[in-house]
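So, is this right?
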Amino acid sequence: MNFRVLSWNLFHGRDFPPAEGGEETGVPSGAVAWRLLGRPVEGKKHIRLNRDLFREFGAFLAAARWDIALLQEVPPRWAHRLSEATGAEARSALTSRNWMRPVMSPVARLRPHLAGSWEGGCNLILVRGATPGLEGSRPGSGIVDFRRSTLTWLPERRVMSMVELQCGLCVANLHASTGERADGDVMRSARLAGGRAGERPLILGGDFNARPRSSDVFKRLEGEFGLAGATAPDSIDHLLTRGVEILEAPEAWPPNRRDVPDPETGLMIRLSDHAPVLARIRI
């Protein structure tokens, strides 16, 4: 069986246009009116919005070609809707700052950049092709097991979630802590995922918050757990594999590939501050 596997940090469902006209990326002019009132800030090619972007993210993921998607920083209220929009089976795991969700979720629906990450988040695994009778359905791609483990509670809760497919492929999703704690989260995830997968093929993907250029954790992952395939020297988003045939190595999409048009102005909306990473494998 061949699988296209995608990993993407959704930035809590927000946009992140490139710098234009000397502005610093992510700090638009007119910030008060934009952040509080949701007034769009227009550039030459891109627009900076502060409204709910589920329609744009959902359509983008629905149109992209993938069989398994590992998503991080997903608004929890989006999990079921993304499953429906993409025609995928879904498993989610709550991560950090969800204790503020009852208060901040209504704010995030109107002004996601005002709420920031304080709406809370989840990691989401989507698997396509598991529904019999639908176009593109494939025997063996259904989820037969789901587990999640808390890696750390402080300073923020970090979670590793993992599914097993009928074909035996095990897939783990991770959003590691930042800074010096990242390597520890990644190694704990690899130990848990490797132990649960046993001899079965394994993918460990997500936002590692660790770069091969500056961290030795990738050498340790390969040496101790046989997990290899870092995306690029400066990347923090990875799809590591063990026991699979690599058809296409993990590669980040160019920034403009996640641009979608704003229906009001025709300018481009750049989704998230992360690029999707895609790999093709065979088991």
Observations:
- The radius of gyration is 19 Å.
- The CA atoms of residues 246 and 281 lie 5 Å apart.
